[in-house]
Amino acid sequence: MNAKYSRSRVFDALGESGSGSYDLSTLFDLRSICGKKGQKAGDSGDHTMCDDVHVFEQCPHDTLTGAMKGSPLKTGLSASSMDLLSAIRSFIRVAETGSFSVVSRELHVSQPTISRQILLLENHYGVRLFSRTTRCLALTDDGRTLLEHAHNIHSMLEDAHLALSQRQSRVYGHIRLATPTAFGLYLTSHLDTLLKQHPELSVELVVSDCFGDIVKDGIDLAIRVGMCQSGSTITRHLADVDRVLVASPGFLETHPVPTHPNDLIGLSPIVYTYGSQEPDWTFRKGNQQICLPMHSSFATNNSEVVHRALVEGMGVGLMPEFSVSRELKSGRLVRLMPEWTIPQLDLHIVYPGPQNACLRRRTVLNFLLSLAPDLAGELASMETMVQ
Fold first, then answer.
1. Is the separation of the CB atoms in 321 and 376 below 8 Å?
2. pTM of the predicted model as reported, rounded to 2 decimal places
């Protein structure tokens, strides 16, 4: 058999299975490659290395358990295959340094441990890798054959470690982010920053004002209003968002400007509702609190429809401040009754457990949390500019 064990064959031996594990049985089943079994000391061509080989002689073959001569490995990453990985690394260093003691110091293990690892390889492949005398250590032909392939294996594992380490530090993959309509529109002006920072990341916005089951719907992260308790999900507070009462200048030209909540009665409210029940609008000022059931000829369960209707001058309405900040700054909408406060929207981020999520989900989660000051402080900063 050709002694050359190509790099492509090594990678073939590491073919990834459907479970994501690697089959190392082919990788380590090199008995046919190593050639002659039972090589004796003094074979022609042995490479002589003088060293403290008496340590090697202290560990007879029958002290090894679970490493029967010539026995194949089980498929997949098991304890025995991990032992072989460690043994191959030690074998390479013993062959390169010619010293058990040097290798034991390098790896911070005892010299008998290195001896047992070499014997493990010999038992597994059914060949003698070194010929030993009281003074010298020599690689056999089989030892030199294994060394060539061991270098390939070690190099391949180092490449795999480097590639996976680099990949773990990169944010890549796909995230499904569920969000109400108003927040989804707000995100469109911010997501570009995230995607430029992580070009291998893709985000799918699942926009709906009707909240479903994020686990069944395959959602990685969801924005929700109010506290969402579930045994299968984790909830993080995002921001308390101000709501404002607004109307268009065109509407106010033909209708009286309200200064008190009672002035809203009969003033064409545009009602945002999740269902058939019309909500109450609550206003607070000092110790006063007024709760008005809003009866309207126009209601919708989509916040963007409310937004568009307000801009078109169809009536007055309550909106999250972040969703109308541009219109307020440009004058397309006017804030009404600013001295009266409206209960805030309590935004949360909900995601399936466990807490130690993949890097891409943690990255998007942290990005959303970084928006909290903007969500909570945009109105205050706008009012400061106006003053």
1. no
2. 0.55
